[in-house]
Amino acid sequence: MKKTLSVLAAITALGLTAACGSGNNGNQASGSADSAGSGASGSPSGSPSGAAQESVSAAPKKVELKIFLGGLDRFREQFDGYFEKFAEKEKADKNIEVTFNSEYPGADNAPQILKTRLATGDVPDVFSLHAVNDMPSFYKAGYLTDMTDQPFADKLLDGIKPLVSIDGKVLAVPMESLSWGFLYNKKIFSDLGLTPPSTLSEMKDVVQKLKDNKVTPFLLSYKEDWIPQLFLPLTVGGLVNTSHPDFIDKMNSGQGSFSELQEMFDIIDLVNANGTDRAFEVGNDDGAADFANGKAAMWVMGTWDADAILKANPDADFGTAPLPINDDPKASMIDVSVSTALAVPPNSKNKEVATDLLNFILDDQASNDLYQSLKFNPVSKNHTFKPYPWVEDANVYINQGLSYQDPVIPPAVKDEVGKALQSYYDKKMSKEDVIKDLDKTWKDANAANK
């Protein structure tokens, strides 16, 4: 019995010695400063100090966010700078070290690249999409996370929230809230005593007055097909909200035809016949520079180009007005839309951090500077910056009831109309050819979405 007790006592003593030795080894890994600190504070020799435990737990989690911003390369500097501000906040708030793998593909091919990525599982953590064109099909495919319960959702302006929602669910952060029609040079108009026309006949008078004074009426920039595509929402939107209210429903049911809207070609023909030369050599960037420097009095373009115009000429004075499509002044309306929005896919590998970024996009303080730097309209109840002059121009018409929500047209049709109107300008397609082409494309889109 005595021998047994002696053995047990020896084993216990060895265990205590080993435990103390293990504690010292662990403390050495934290650095000599911790060891000195524990002695000074009277901690038992070999036990980890509170400072050492805090030092170990403070190692930041590292996350790389994949960001896909199609068609936003012109804003790369602003977005990259804002993402760095988010990284600083995420490190301070959650001890997460965020880096970014950002892509800025061109507007022409970005939608197809994104769809391929999402379909194959190579998903970005945050991506841009067109709220009107893309959101319905992306929602149906399950590519969008419901963000209704996120803080940013309650901040959205009442007029903006429905534009980024489906089935009552907020699905994205709105970036570009748009109120647009065509752009006009205010100085040229003022010098010649002109005001924006409200009917097609008045537009013809304006064109003649400009030509009489050796001013080119319209800037043509058809190098990129998305630019002539802009005629589609402007003409369809005005007609659907006046004389042809059932057109889109009929097209979606396979019972309609663009032959019902042949008058849409009247304004297209007027613009094409009175525009600048070398239309196919001028894209968006060159067009913005040309318009900024007064090479034409009007440009069928949205206010999203305000930043590019002012970079080309900080003194450029321009406004926006509804594009007349016929002689009914009520059909000359402002298109109200959200184009670029940011979303998170449900299968993002960094969904929590990606969601934090979306909330930071509408941060109460920082987002004011971001949206101002982008020349975007306010979208949050907490945006306090003064709207730009071209926004106030559009609001005059909106307050008169002369506006509509961007018509929901299949993206394939919008893609096709740009190419078709390029060919129409180049006289390679007739009106009848364009109508047949668009009718077929819409029917194909209906079949693909069943």
Quick take:
The chain has 19 helices and 14 strands.
CATH topology name of the largest domain = D-Maltodextrin-Binding Protein, domain 2
Shape: globular
What is the strand content? 5-15%
Helix-residue proportion:
40-55%
CATH homologous superfamily name of the largest domain?
Answer: Periplasmic binding protein-like II
Structural class: alpha/beta
The strand count comes to 14
**What's the N-to-C terminus distance?**
87 Å
**Average pLDDT, to the nearest integer?**
88
Strand order of the largest sheet: 2-1-3-13-6
Radius of gyration: 30 Å
Total domain count:
2
- Low-confidence segments, given as residue ranges, are 1-56
Query: Any guess at the CATH architecture of the largest domain?
Result: 3-Layer(aba) Sandwich
Q: What top-tier CATH class of the largest domain fits best?
A: Alpha Beta
Total of DSSP H or I helical runs spanning 4+ residues: 19
Main beta sheet, described?
5 strands, mixed
Keywords: Signal, Transport
Region (Disordered): 25-56
GO cellular component, one term: cell envelope
Subcellular location: Cell envelope
Characterise this structure.
This protein has 450 residues and is α/β, with parallel strands linked by helices. The protein folds into two domains: 61-176 and 339-376, Periplasmic binding protein-like II (D-Maltodextrin-Binding Protein, domain 2, 3-Layer(aba) Sandwich); 180-337 and 393-448, D-Maltodextrin-Binding Protein, domain 2. 47% of the residues lie in helices and 12% in strands. The chain has 19 helices and 14 strands. The strands form four sheets. It has a five-stranded mixed β-sheet. A four-stranded mixed β-sheet has the order 9-10-8-11. A three-stranded mixed β-sheet has the order 7-12-14, sandwiched between helices. Residues 25-52 have a biased composition (Low complexity). Part of a binding-protein-dependent transport system for a sugar. Its main location: other.
